[in-house]
Amino acid sequence: MSFIKTLILSFCLIGSFGLSAKENMNVLFIAIDDLNDWIGPMGGNPAVKTPNFDKFFANGGMSMYKAHSPSTVCGPARSAIMTGKHCYNTGVYGNDTNLKNAPKAKDLLTIPEWFSKHGYHSLSAGKIFHKHPTEKEIDHGQWAFDEHHVIKGGLGAKSKAKPANGLLDINGKQMKGKGLEFDWGPTVKNDTTQMKDYKIADWAVNQFQKRSFDKPFFMAVGFSKPHLPWFVPQKYFDMYPLDKIELPEIKENPHEKIVNEKGEFIYGKAFREDSKRWGRAEKYGVTKNALQAYMANVTFVDDCLGHLLDGLNNSPYADNTIVVLWGDHGWHLGEKKRFGKCLLWQESTRVPLMLKVPGVTPNNKRCDGVVNLIDLYPTLSELCNIPVNPKNDGRSFAKLANQPDMKWNKPTLTSWLEGNHRIYDGRYSYINWRGGDELYDHKNDPLEHNNLANNPEYAKIMAKLKALVPKHNEPESPRNTFDKKKMKELYKKQANK
């Protein structure tokens, strides 16, 4: 970007209190599935190689260090992000609920629809919404875009065994059903370019370099890795020798003993189900293998990101495209003896969120403002100088683009399932799960092991945060009722198109 153009754009932003540019800028909206904070700009695990995340950070991709998701599982998180409405206001609480079947969500305009309404051309490829079966096709959220492209391809596991990693169930029997998803290993070919996520990036690069848009564009690109199963080319596994991998800090879990007012243990089935992965990995001595696989998948998606951003930077759109990158929720990798997401602890709620406004966001900058992915809808609207949807629950953080050090610590909300919430204010997190109270001081206990809920010294702090918990929760919206056999046939048909 030329100095004069940068100066003009900066003055426009400053003149509008840091909220909007003079022209409608393009948007590149990058979603990454199950990516936790194990990338360089988030500092979760310095051993993970993410040179392209680091490069983006060094070149204006500001890291929103205290970003959290509106939910800790894909479906409700993405529904909330894309509609700008919290789960408790829509009744979309789980992966089996399609927002199009939710009475309080089905008529809401999603982010791409809002941008299309205000003069943008919206297009997408990859996973942006959580997919759902319908009578005729798989609903990828294609209805929300002017163009939606289904990208074929991908490489399967090198091993023909199921699971490929040979992991048995906790009782030493052959694994079946949903447990097969906790699987990893090298792909058939050691070729990054044949992986589906890389092909999605390649599609976007072709749009940047070969297409002339007559409107500003809103382009959504969704990467599926590092979602399970963890199959990527062997070269990524080779980057992480098992003898060099260190386990996260793992303590005996006091959370299993937390009770509600009735004296009932609040962490029952939901806790045990997701902990089975940890139990299996620990029993069979493959905890480091699981970490190796996740790290390999993160570095793979880093390569996809690099290809995507290099394509943008070498195109005519480099200087007038806002780039926002986000992970839909976090992921436990041994902490609290869990491999997985869900529940409301920090490992599941904290997410990568990076924002670049060309010529405005500073290089190598970490912003400590407390933000939520639900804030993306109004933030991007303001940055692109289009009206903010008055139905949005989120709060625009556009001011932080050129004032990243300003105070920004309004508490934020994360939910999972009906009536369970977490409030986080940048220092303390309050969790109400199944009627039980938890309070953690992140300054002194960043891993959330010391529950202060019953400590009278913290009663005022807990009361203040507890008062922010929603008083009303919409009833759960209808779940998908599609026949499983038909669903499998539909997925197979879709894959062969």
UniProtKB/TrEMBL annotation:
GO terms for cellular component: cytoplasm. GO terms for molecular function: iduronate-2-sulfatase activity; metal ion binding. Pfam families: Sulfatase. Residues 471-497 have a biased composition (Basic and acidic residues). Residues 26-385 form the Sulfatase N-terminal domain. The keyword Metal-binding applies. The keyword Hydrolase applies. InterPro entries: Alkaline_phosphatase_core_sf (IPR017850), IDS (IPR035874), Sulfatase_CS (IPR024607), Sulfatase_N (IPR000917). Its cofactor is Ca(2+). Keywords: Calcium, Hydrolase, Metal-binding, Signal. Residues 1-21 form the signal peptide. Transmembrane segments: none annotated. Residues 470-497 are annotated as: Disordered. Belongs to the sulfatase family. This is Iduronate-2-sulfatase. It comes from Lentisphaera araneosa HTCC2155. The lineage of its organism: Bacteria, Pseudomonadati, Lentisphaerota, Lentisphaeria, Lentisphaerales.
